[in-house]
Structures are given as structure tokens and as C-alpha cells.
Give the backbone structure.
Amino acid sequence: NMAEGAETFSLREVLVAFTACVSEQREVRVDPYLAGWKGLVRFLNCLGTIFSFISKDAVTKIEIIENYRNSDQREKYLTVQSMVEYELANGLVDLQKRSDSGCRTLLRLHRALHWLQMFLEGLRTGKDNSKTSVICSETYNASLANYHPWIIRKAAGVAFCALPTRNTFLETMNVGTAEEAVAMLGDALPYICEVYKITEELYAQHKLLDLP
Ligand code: 1Q0
């Protein structure tokens, strides 16, 4: 089955991408960061059209940053560190209102990565019969929901109800049995946490964590 093959590939690709994000100088590489998100979006699309309002927003943000990576300034956007340095030094980051700077756009993905980290940990340590929808809404409410208006929180809550049980969800990952999927999550999570931590520290250092 072709579709199944594509899914398998994309999920491994997600994890491989996040493991390739951090450079030897502890910088976060933008290309694998975006590749990781693209894989997540593909996985999300497999879960049904009820999630498309979420994947559309993620795609828009991925494309904004990808456009910088394809522009004349592409070298400045090689790592999150060089992006922050370049955009701040050139007055490209609007601190007062919404803009399409790389910094504010990546911040939205960064906040979502915090949710992902908690969600995957919840999934990994959950019981066989746990509800994915409960793990998802608990971790969402503890993280991303704080940045979303009521209407988005409501829509997200409705979408979460469409998630399958934990074991079915783990099997949807197509990396083998539920146990094998759990093992893979355990291997991958430290890399995702590291990417999150480095970005969080960088943004805190430059006081960018509240960008509108
Ligand atoms: C598995 C179920 C997935 C549930 C995803 C949870 C996140 C809910 C987020 C709802 C946000 C929806 C729409 C738009 C929001 C924007 O207003 C907001 C702020 O942006 P802005 O420009 O208005 O300031 N945008 C965001 O907060 C970005 C949200 C991006 C969410 C991307 C989620 C990608 C999900 C991937 C699926 C994960 C599957 C995990 C299993 C994979 C294992 C390796």
C-alpha cells in the first residue's frame, strides 16, 4: 500500500529531522527543523480533514520561514541563532504588532513544539487503554491553549475528540507494534526536548518570548 509506505517514511523522517537539528555548536538548524514540522503536518493530515485548520496554519508558518531560506538572505536563516541575530540587528522584528518576521513565526512553531514534547511523553507513558484525546487535550490546555483565543481552543477540543485510542494511534505511526512505537518515541524525545530547550533559552536571552 503506497499511502502506508509514505506514512511510515514521514514519521521516521520527523524523528530523524529533529535528531539532525542541533549542530556541534549547539545551534538549531532551520532546514531540519522545518523538515520535522512538514513530516508532522503530513502525519496530521492522515488523521482526517477535521485537523486541516491546524495543519493549514502550520503550513503557512513553515512556508514563511522557507521563503526566507529561499531568498537572497538565505544564509542568515541557516540557524535559529543566525536568524535572531540578523533580524534583530536589522530592525526586522516588530515588538508592538503582528508581523511576518522569522522570529515571531518560528515562535509559534516553538510553542507548538512544547505541546508536542508533552503530548509524546504522555503518549509514551500512558496506559494501553488511555484515550489519546485526553492526553492531547490535557497537554494542549497546559501549554498552547494559553496563547489561543476561545474560538480556537473550542475548535481544537472538538477535533481532539476524533483521535483514536492510544494503541490505535501508536499503530497509525506505522513503525511496528505499539511497544515499538513507544520505544521509538523514547529514543526521539530527548532530541526534541533539546531543540526546544536551546530555542527557549535563545528567545529568553533576547526577550523574544512574547512577540506579538
Ligand atoms: C494529534 C493531534 C494534533 C493536535 C494538534 C494540537 C495543536 C492544536 C493547535 C490548534 C491551532 C490551530 C490554528 C491556528 C492557530 C494560530 O492562531 C496560532 C497562532 O498563530 P498566529 O499567527 O495567529 O499568532 N498558531 C499556532 O499556535 C501554531 C500551531 C501549530 C500546530 C501544529 C501541530 C502539528 C501537529 C502535528 C501532529 C502531531 C502528531 C504526533 C505524532 C507524531 C509522532 C512523532
Notes: The longest helix spans residues 178-205. The mean pLDDT is 93. The domain at 2-94+101-205 is CATH 1.10.3520.10 (Glycolipid transfer protein, GLTP).
